[in-house]
Amino acid sequence: MSHGALALIATLPIVVVLILMPGLGWPAKRAMPVSWLVAVILAYFVWKVDLIRILAASVQGLWVAVSLLWIIFGSLMLLATLKYSGAVATIRYGFTKITPDRRIQAIILGFLFGCFIEGASGFGTPAAIVGPLLVALGFPGMAAVVVGMVTQSMPVSFGAVGTPILVGVNTGLKSGQGLVESAAQAMGMSWEQYLYSIAARVGILHAIIGFVMPLFISCLLTRFFGKNRSWKEGLEVWPFALFAGITFAIPYVLLANFVGPEFPSMLGALIALAIVTYAASKGFLMPKNIWDFPPQEEWPSLWLGTVTGDVGEIREKMSLVKAWTPYVIVAILLVLTRMYKPLATALKSVNLQLKNIFGTNISQSWEILHSPGTIFLVVVIIVWFLHQMKGEEISKSFKEVAGQMFNAGVALSFSVPMVRVFIESGVNATGYMSMPLELAKGVADSVGAAWPMFAAYIGGLGAFVAGSNTVSNMMFALFQWSVANQIGVSERLVVALQAVGGAGGNMFCVHNAVAAAAVVGMIGKEGYILRMTVIPTIYYLTAAGIYGMLAIYVLGFH
Predict the structure, then answer these.
(1) In whole angstroms, how far apart are CA 552 and each of 346, 493, 500?
(2) Could you tell me the CA-to-CA distances from 553 to 45, 122, 245, 384 in Å, in that order?
(3) Cα torsion angle, 370, 373, 376, 382, sign
(4) pLDDT confidence tier of residue 311, bands split at 50, 70 and 90
(5) Mean pLDDT, the chain, as a whole number?
(6) How far is CA 460 from CA 298, 356, 467, 539, in A?
(7) Helix ranges (DSSP H) in 360-468
(8) Helix/strand/coil (H, E, C) string of 100-115?
(9) Which of 382, 406, 405, 407 is nearest to 394 (CA)?
(10) Region of residue 207 (phi > 0: left; psi between -120 and 50: alpha; otherwise: beta)
(11) Contacts of 197 (CB under 8 A, 6+ apart)
């Protein structure tokens, strides 16, 4: 069978998701079992994958789903605990003193704070923290999820202290049996220099196309959640939104080019957060009109989740510093457990593994102590003592969270196994490449020299399917490099487009939608979330492609 025909067939599990979720509004817990079944049928009957391997890949997916649910559980427990301790009420009151304008709150807390958390931890943690916080501030659950999803764009390539580059791109390119290493040596570069030069290009691409994301967030809020359904009201904050985006982009791109892939998102966001929050408190570039959501009694049920804006009562002894301390501890622990290698090594030594599942070479590990979920739960225990919580309040927290976990478990229990079957289809009796690689090959054969226009879309496809920029880069980095080499354009820039696309694709990713929806109690509404995030996703991937074409064919970048 030709690569073109295989590419069309390989799109079926993805097409099913697109039709059922954004198209028909099906919840993930109904759509993903269908997509999983389609992937299984294709793997068995077309790719001739052994049934045992298909089952092993599905079990591997279930194990990954459990690790994701652990993060969701920790996030929900942290929010519930802080609500019953009175901290969330204090945080809400303190933030409204800076500005009651929801657009500005979303930019500072949703985007900049979310970028910092992404830089420190990655793995969907920003949505797990930012979403519930925004709900506590008075945002509708759907709006909070959309902000959290869109935030997972510009910072993702350097998330988790550079993991998508240092692990994803690095591992992907090294799978070429020395081909890329030889090319680097021919250029007089060490492997580290070559890898860091790709990271530098990733930083430049993100800065050019990503600095407008705070403005995107503002416009999405006013268009989909405003009384007047207006894009114009979102654009009214353009001076402040672009100021925030540029304030983040400048240190971000400098760190990517002169330091390395570990710090652009984390330190760039931290610098921007300090500057932009101070500027907002002084009224700098603030809009004349205060924008807010309609009264809560007018909110449609689609906007609401089981996690509500009920923030509890403000307590006299709960200062703003004391209320924010748990989040500060979370940030410190995330940084320490990622940056301090002796601690990271110790935590990673506790590794719950499924080895050689059903006798195959498919294995999956879960470093549970290194998981953000564990960090959240450690901070929960600290809060019990720090905020002097009563046993009754702790018990209420557990009961509240227990009722929110089931639906998330059902949705993830099919979405992640579908992904693993899709990816593991490369080991088969036909000699075909895996489904995602056959799909990419079909596109490459069709577009030829115009490949840079589509490279970011392939990266986005990988993230949409796998739920991870790191995995997308591992799947496609060598393929992207090889296509660029064949058509005679800059391999490093095309691989950078892959990494940027893999970050942008996180905005339109079923895994992220399920996880983000779960932490605000909106499981079942993932399709509607994806309808809203498709707009910034298309912008991001298309803008990356246009810049890639201009950089290669007009500016002559190498």
Answers:
(1) 45, 8, 16
(2) 42, 34, 28, 59
(3) negative
(4) low
(5) 90
(6) 36, 30, 10, 12
(7) 372-386, 391-424, 435-447, 451-466
(8) CCHHHHHHHHHHHHHH
(9) 382
(10) alpha
(11) 189, 492
Distance CA 288, CA 16 (A): 46
Burial class (CB in 10 A: 0-12, 13-18, 19+), 97: exposed
Helix or strand (DSSP H, E) at 76: helix 51-85
pLDDT band at 2 (very low <50, low <70, confident <90, very high): confident
> Rounded distance, CA 339 to CA 33, Å?
38
Render pLDDT for 498-557 as a digit per residue (tens, 0 to 9). 999 999 999 998 888 888 888 888 888 999 999 999 999 999 999 999 999 999 999 887
To 10 degrees, what angle do helices 51-85 and 125-137 make?
30
Q: What's the token pair of residue 102? A: 């929801």
pLDDT of residue 309: 55
pLDDT given at position 312: 56
State the distance between the two ends of the chain, measured CA to CA, in whole angstroms: 36
SS (H, E, C) 152-171: CCCCHHHHHHHHHHHHHHHH
How many Å apart are CA 207 and CA 496, to the nearest integer?
A: 13
Which H or E run includes 552? helix 526-553
For the chain, give the percent of residues with pLDDT over 70.
97
Q: If DSSP codes are grouped into helix, strand and coil, which group holds residue 428?
A: coil
Rounded CA separation 480/451 (Å): 9
Compute the distance between CA of residue 539 and CA of residue 534 in angstroms, rounded to an integer.
Answer: 9
Q: pLDDT tens for residues 91-145?
A: 877 877 788 999 999 999 999 989 988 887 776 677 777 888 898 888 999 999 9
